[in-house]
Fold:
Amino acid sequence: MKKSYTIEISTSTFWTLLVPITVLCMIFGGLCGIFIVDRFVMPNITDIKNRGVVKVPEILNLKLEAARQELYDIGLRLQIQSWQYNDTVDKDVVVSQNPPPEQNVKKGRHIFVEVSKGKEIGKIPAVAAMTERNGKKVLREAGFSNIRVYKSYSEKYDKDIIAMTNPSRGTVISREVCVEITVSKGPKPTHAEVPNVIGEALSEAKRLIEESGLKVGSVEYRMNTQARPGSVISQSVSPGASAPLESPVNLVISASQ
Structure:
């Protein structure tokens, strides 16, 4: 005769102990299953482990734009870390890269490069008689990027044409040196148009007059209740008139009590 056994569990034990343990076991089992599938099963089936990873190509000795395009084509980006003079590598050629070739990296990664500026010593090119824009372009192409512009009157060269450089053309010198170019303002005029400085402060009136090629003559102060103190109330030469270059313009300034 079989005996039957009955296990009795109280309601409180069932809800406070067995149910939570069962739920925790189900959650733990699910997480373990996800981990095993993600780490061991799926990579071996679909090669997910290597998805989005590329091998860094060798871009040494490539022109900058060619290197940039080669990286772009496989999902990488080029970033210039520095420019350095190099006596053996031509200008705009990649001389070093980081990460190095053959290393596996994620797509979208920046590849840092050092680019050659060419030889440090260069020869000043002939840019006289060129326009300012073209002359600057020729200098930069020759490796001289530190350029300072001065303007001066010239009887020989038309306005906006380069009259000379310092150092002069043909000079062999470091490309770091500042190249000064003098740009013609055209023939020096004999007359200038007188600016209107009525109502201007004395300092501003002086600036306008001197920039016009004239100079400030005598300055007289007169009482005037209608004008702002310190402003010009009259000038000796009418605005818009033509006056000999560097001739004086006398001013009368408003004074207050």
In short: The helical segments are 11-46, 64-73, 132-141, 202-211.
